[in-house]
Amino acid sequence: MVLDETLLVLHDSLFRDIYRVRDDGVVVFKTYIDGEWIDTGDYIEVHSPIDNSLIALVSKPKLEAVESTIDKMYRMGRWKVRDTPGDKRIELLEKVADLLREHKDDIVESLVLNAGKTYSQARGEVEASIERLRKAKMDLRKLIGEYVPGDWSYTTLETEGILRKEPYGIVLAITPFNYPLFDTVNKFTYSFVAGNAVLFKPSSLDPIPVILFTRLLEEVGIPKYSYTLLTLSGRDTTEILGDRRIGVISFTGSTETGLEIIRNAGIKQYIMELGGGDPVVVLDDADLEQAAGNIAVGITSYAGQRCDAIKLVLPEEPVYEELKKLIVDKLSKYRVGDPRCPANSVGPLITPSVADTMMEAVKDAVEKGGVILYGGKRLGPTYVEPTLIEFRDREKLYETILFKKEIFAPIAVITPVKNVDEAIEIINKRRYGLDAAIFGKDINKIRKLIRYLEVGAIYINEYPRHGIGYYPFGGRKDSGIGREGIGYSIEQVTAWKTIVYNYRGRGVWRYLV
Ligand code: NAP
Asked: What is the pLDDT of residues 355-390, one digit of tens each?
């Protein structure tokens, strides 16, 4: 199933100084801290999900070095960004976008080998990142202030207030493995354009695309000490979470990690994009062919390792049997295997332990009465079949791992509903509230679902997809706090400051009191 050796080979001379290659082909990366690339001699091992082989070692900074760099970012870096005129910040981001296009080949390769993406998914992630950098101008529509007249309270007559927005200073961006490049680019773009310095903490599973991206920032001349790469394990990162110099934590990852971060970091500004796995309601007047095609993509895209992947399908009873058959038919067309092979559309899971988790969930579902309609088998350490499981008994469904937890793999449950009220009850019973999708035409049913579903976004006649955040997304309940989206996240990395001007007795106003 695996094509050939998974060796990471970088061709671009721009990256030459940030790594060396060992005799066995393993690439040893430096890390970027304190404005320098350094080989610390202490490494994180990086494996390829394609065949689980070791492809790289990434230098881990010492905690004292992290402490020193946060100090420099606080004293110098954040002011260097803030003192860079807004137009110049935009120009720098444009240049990063140009460089990303020019040097994309090694980055695409790193997304395929390190994250297990197909070439088309990897190129798509690079394109999305370029577009995000170029859309920084659209973020600026929210970087304006407000004027509050003193007229409306006797105590504030002859005064006026101006509310201005200013950057918090340092944003700690912690990203998950599934969109390693895009998530970093997105968090960097809205934080930097608003005038913040940024600490990048990539996933230890696939940090290579982020390391290469960091080199691009250095190349375009983003001010020194205004960005730092923290190639630390999650556990080591815990040590710095409570640092008072870090004003914002922008985290994307699982609900469990999000909760641990909040416990350790205490009072701060948070953007928390957490676990999800989305439900979809199919109404009895839906175009079933279109719905089934969308649902199959929603289940299988990037092997179901997306927060907005479809995990629960709720068709109304009259269309249940036909929709079920159509989805199974669509799923049977997906080929699982080495993502470097163009014929394969579903690549590996990020680690064998994720495949273990999925197999446990399948076993648990079957023990509780679920019927496997498609898939259910493991095809290799990190390869699994796209899987659809049917449940008729609602109470049993509620007890399953698949209902209670997010399984980050291409697996979904299908169960019929009598009407939209039943769909609302099931969806709102889940601990997550990221998105939902609705397929159908009846505007009254659609409108009712929109009113009652406790989720952050609803996609109508389309599977949930966050894309570049042109439309803002974010969760409710255990799916998070805040919104990621162009022109929306910027509000959470800037703080209001109220300025009150007192003109009493200066003859500016003449109130008739
Ligand atoms: P994860 O295991 O929670 O890890 C996410 C990041 O947190 C990694 O960089 C990880 O570092 C770090 N981390 C782990 N423990 C930490 C700690 N105690 N303190 C600070 N950082 C810590 O998530 P994942 O498996 O990479 O990603 C999948 C999850 O992300 C899913 O739940 C998915 O739904 C969610 N997600 C949500 C959205 C959204 O928009 N809502 C988007 C994408 C993904 P190490 O790798 O070093 O452990």
From this structure: 999 999 999 999 999 999 999 999 999 999 999 999
Domain-located, residue 150: yes
Q: Give the relative orientation of helices 119-134 and 104-115 as an angle to the nearest 10 degrees.
A: 130
Going from the Cα of 13 to the center of ligand 1, the distance in angstroms, rounded, reads 32
Are 336 and 298 a contacting pair, CB within 8 Å?
A: no
The reply to whether ligand 1 has any atom less than 6 angstroms from the CB of 489 is no
Q: Kindly state whether residues 375 and 270 are assigned to the same domain.
A: no
Tell me, yes or no, whether 438 and 296 share the same domain. Answer: yes
Number of domains in the chain: 2
Given the structure tokens 């889940």, which residue do they identify?
430
Q: Clarify whether residues 219 and 258 are in a common domain.
A: yes
pLDDT in tens, 120-164: 999 999 999 999 999 999 999 889 999 999 999 999 999 999 999
**What is the CA(345)–ligand 1 centre distance, in A?**
24
Q: Which of 257, 255, 252 is nearest to 235 (CA)?
A: 257
| Structure-token match 């494996």, residue found | 47
Q: Which atom of ligand 1 lies closest to the CA of 484? A: 40
The residue assigned the tokens 């989305």 is: 278
Active centre residues (catalytic): 273, 307
Ligand 1: atom nearest CA of 256 is 3
Say yes or no to pLDDT of 41 above 80.
yes
The protein residue with its alpha carbon nearest to ligand 1, atom 28, reads 253
Pairing of strands 411-414, 432-433: unpaired
∠ CA 62-63-66, rounded to 5°: 95
Beta bridge partners of 298: none
Structure tokens at 228: 């730092």
What tens digit of pLDDT does each residue of 279-314 get?
A: 999 999 999 999 999 999 999 999 999 999 999 999
Element holding 37 (H helix, E strand): strand 36-38
What is the secondary structure of 39-82 as a DSSP string?
A: --S-EEEEE-TTT--EEEEEEPPPHHHHHHHHHHIIIIIHHHHH
According to the model, what pLDDT value does residue 5 have? 80
- Give dist(CA 117, CA 104) in Å, integer: 15
- Measured between its terminal Cα atoms, the distance across the chain in Å is 84
Among candidate residues 319, 332, 257, the one with its CA nearest the CA of residue 291 = 319
Residue 364 has a pLDDT of 98
The response to whether residue 195 sits with its C-beta less than 6 Å from ligand 1 reads no
Domain with 490, as residue range(s), is: 63-274+484-494
Computed over every residue of the chain, the mean pLDDT equals 97
Instruction: Answer whether 234 contacts ligand 1 (Cβ < 6 A).
Output: yes
Amino acid symbol at 341: C
Ligand 1 atom showing the smallest separation from residue 176 Cα: 26
Largest CA-CA distance found in the chain, in angstroms, rounded: 86
Unique residue bearing structure tokens 């940030």: 18
Q: Could you tell me whether strands 54-59 and 43-47 are parallel, antiparallel, or unpaired per DSSP bridges?
A: antiparallel
CATH number assigned to the domain comprising residue 309: 3.40.309.10
Q: Assign residue 266 a region (left: φ > 0; alpha: ψ between -120 and 50; beta: otherwise).
A: left
